[in-house]
């Protein structure tokens, strides 16, 4: 698939560019949620880390948005979460924001899930990511209750679904 000025490529989950973008995302989320997680016990922090973990065997697709000069602009994963299809680990680099990268990655994940027979795509986010929340709403995602595995360690998560 291609979009103006960038293309979407399916890559291996361990592609070094994808791994690097996930590190950038982790640093960004750590910064955004640092105060919210400050009072966590080590046990709660470990449970949260386990809830957020993405295991390669559950990954259906890892996608990168790549600029004309081969610079990675964004990343997303589509994974199976039990019987569900979940959008995970969406990031758009700071320099690529407002170019439609996040929207293109989201639309591609939704299309892949739909073509594979999913009845919906779900995702988990949070209040400290307002730009993501706006994009998900604009893409047609609607709010749902917090779902497993986030209920215990992230009960204030904001969760959404895209229904086919």
Automatic annotation (TrEMBL):
<dbReference type="Pfam" id="PF00583">
    <property type="entry name" value="Acetyltransf_1"/>
</dbReference>
<protein>
    <submittedName>
        <fullName>GNAT family N-acetyltransferase</fullName>
    </submittedName>
</protein>
<dbReference type="InterPro" id="IPR016181">
    <property type="entry name" value="Acyl_CoA_acyltransferase"/>
</dbReference>
<feature type="domain" description="N-acetyltransferase">
    <location>
        <begin position="19"/>
        <end position="159"/>
    </location>
</feature>
<keyword id="KW-0012">Acyltransferase</keyword>
<dbReference type="InterPro" id="IPR000182">
    <property type="entry name" value="GNAT_dom"/>
</dbReference>
<keyword id="KW-0808">Transferase</keyword>
<dbReference type="InterPro" id="IPR050832">
    <property type="entry name" value="Bact_Acetyltransf"/>
</dbReference>
């Amino acid at each position: 698939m291609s979009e103006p000025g960038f293309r979407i490529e399916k890559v291996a989950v361990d592609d070094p560019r994808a791994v690097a973008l996930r590190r950038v995302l982790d640093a960004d989320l750590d910064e955004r949620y640092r105060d919210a997680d400050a009072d966590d016990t080590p046990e709660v922090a470990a449970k949260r880390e386990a809830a957020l973990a993405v295991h390669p065997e559950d990954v259906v697709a890892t996608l990168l948005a790549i600029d004309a000069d081969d610079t990675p602009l964004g990343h997303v994963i589509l994974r199976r979460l039990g019987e569900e299809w979940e959008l995970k680990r969406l990031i758009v680099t700071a320099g690529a924001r407002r170019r439609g990268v996040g929207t293109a990655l989201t639309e591609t994940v939704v299309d892949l899930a739909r073509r594979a027979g999913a009845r919906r795509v779900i995702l988990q986010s949070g209040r400290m990511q307002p730009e993501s929340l706006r994009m998900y709403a604009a893409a047609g995602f609607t709010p749902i209750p917090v779902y497993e595995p986030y209920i215990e360690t992230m009960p204030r998560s904001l969760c959404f679904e895209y229904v086919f």
